[in-house]
Each structure stands twice: as structure tokens, then as C-alpha cells.
What we know:
Structural class of chain B: alpha/beta
Distance between the termini of chain B: 18 Å
Largest interface: B-C, 26 and 29 residues
Number of domains of chain A: 1
Number of domains of chain B: 1
CATH superfamily of chain A: HprK N-terminal domain-like
Radius of gyration of chain A: 12 Å
CATH architecture of chain B: 3-Layer(aba) Sandwich
Order of helices and strands of chain B: HEEHEHEHEHEE
Radius of gyration of chain B: 13 Å
Number of strands of chain B: 7
CATH topology of chain A: Udp-n-acetylmuramoylalanyl-d-glutamate--2,6- Diaminopimelate Ligase, Chain: A, domain 1
Shape of chain A: globular
Oligomer: heterotrimer
Amino acid sequence: MDLASIVKELNLKVECGKDQLTQEVSGGYVGDLLSDVMANSKEGNLWITRQTHQNIVAVASLKELAGIILVQGKGPEKDTLEKASKEGIPLLVTDLHTFEVAGKLYKLLS
Amino acid sequence: MTLFEVMDILDAKVLVGREELNVEVKTAFSADLLSDVLAFAKAGSLLLTGLTNPQIVRTASILDIAAIILVRGKIAPDETLRLADELNIPMLSTRYILFETSGRLHAAGIVGCVEKVGRDDSVAL
Amino acid sequence: MNLNYENSFTIEGGNFEDAGKIAVEIKKTLKNMGITGDTLRKTAIATYESEINIISYAKRGVINVRVTPECVFLNIKDEGPGIEDIEMAMREGYSTASYRIRELGFGAGMGIPNIKNCSDDFELTSEVNKGTHLRIVINMNNS
């Protein structure tokens, strides 16, 4: 499923990366510990996290993730937004908490 | 659903609390950050996490969490298991990643539910 | 139901292994005294987060719990670096946590906001290079 459709279905707010929504999402990954995400996420995964600091962009870039969903309605920090825009990593925000948005994404991708 | 059914859905191993699988659960909270759990997780919920240190057990005890589900096939260190046993917190381990674990439980009807610290109302999401 | 209790607990900074042990003990004691619901939950969370803060940042600290029929008083004092910017510390998401602290699952910057949300009365003072003092009142719920 492509990212644009997911954004629509899950009602996600696009903070940046509007032009990078055509890519296919290979799966979802949930994690707040960066070392874990670095070790275990897969290319093309859509990453769900509550971390909003700029280090998430580096991780997403290195692992070639499809994008990052930030939960609990917490938008990215200014540095994070700047970096993500530069690196072309879509940052999406949901008001839902991790369990719910992961559940909904899982259903969409199954 | 009961922890028996959770175990089934997640193809999980019981690490602690084999005698307590009749416990009923309706809600779950997924997190790797304990302060989030402390801020939001509702009493009686499942806690889905990739953390395996003893603090997850203490956090679960503080919040009256029904059971801890460790993901990605993680087996907790002895001290964590001992503490879970001591504090009567059932602990299961599933091979699925946190994303899939959340997905499977959600599909089976478990709801994400948060209780904002300091307020009496709880919010179903 | 005897609702008069007081006890102090000393916590060593850096003792991550025992993190939360005191909070769990306090919760058990209060539960055995018949304290339930919101009061118990808020006290549990506030003591836990305070304990984690002492362990994460201070050299050592003391949590004093005093229970009366009207409320729970928490008096928490530590010796350590203190808080440089209290206003920032009160903001959700602001954290000065080290990598080690974050890897344990703490350091999300929710500690002090969580404590404040649990308190009916809250006072935080700090002196850099000396320590931090937290005074919390949690009212007994009408259960």
C-alpha cells in the first residue's frame, strides 16, 4: 500500500514530505528505542514512535524507512522538521496512541 | 478476553504466571518508554514492550497492569522474571515484533485505552 | 483504618537495579492501610518518578511519606546537580537524560510533568550544584 493512501485512511497530518508519499510501505515498525529501530526495522517500513527529537531522522534515513508516524498528537521539534524536510523523510502525526495506530495500520497492510 | 486467548493469538510463551491465565483483559498499551506508561496506561491493561529490565515490572506493579507481553522473542533476565514472580505480574513472550503484536491484539478486539494521570476519566481511543 | 503513617526512604544515585523498589514498597504499605483509587495511583506514580529522578541524576536522595486522614504528603530532597532551568524541566518532552538512562526506557522528559499532574499541590525548588527539593500533596479521594 502506498503512503498517500495510508495517510488518507488513518487521517494523518503531514508535517513534511508531501512529495514523498508515493512510495510503497513494506510494513510497520513500532519502537521508541533508537538502537532497537536501527537493528530491527526493515527498508520501506513505516515507523511509529513517540520520539520527536532530531535523531529519529538519521535513523529513518539510514534504514531507508518510508516515513515516521508521531503519536499522541505530538508534532516534531523544529530541528527534526528541518532535518526531515532536508532528507526527504515524511513526518506524519496522529492523535492516537501507539497501540491504536499500530492496530489500524496493521489492518490496512494485511 | 483472557490471557489464555492472548497467548493463543500471539503464539506466546508464558514466562511467569502460568496459574493466572484466566485474568480478563480488554485494553493494551504499547511502549518502550516507561514514563509514557506511567503517564497514560490504564490499570488492568496489557503492557506490550520491548524492554526487559526489572523496571518494567515495577512500573507494571505501580499501575496495576494485568500482564506484560515481551515482544520479538525476548526472554527477560532472571532478575526481571524473579521480580515478576514476586510481584505477581504475569509475563508472556511472543516472537512477533511490537507492530505485529499490537496489530494482532487490535484485530482481536483489544482496545487502546489511556488514563491520563491526574484525571478521573479514562479515554478510549 | 489507621491513617497516620510516616516513613523516610534513602535512595542512592545511580542504583538503577533497584529503581522503583521504594515506590512499590510505599504503594504496598498504603494499599494495606486501605488507601485506594486515585490517591493510591497518584502517590504511586509520583513516588516512582521521583525515585527514578534521584537515581538518574542525583548523588542520593530521601523520600519522606506522611499520611494523614486528609492527604498524603511527599517530601523529596536530593543532593546533586540540581535543576538549571525549572521552567524547562516542567515541560513535557524536555530531558537532560544520558544515553544510558534512555536505553533503560526512561528519560522521555515526562518525569516532572507526570509528578505535577499527580499532585493536588506541588512545589519544586532547586539549587544548582546542591540539589532539588520537591513537596507534593495528594488529597484523599472520596471513595
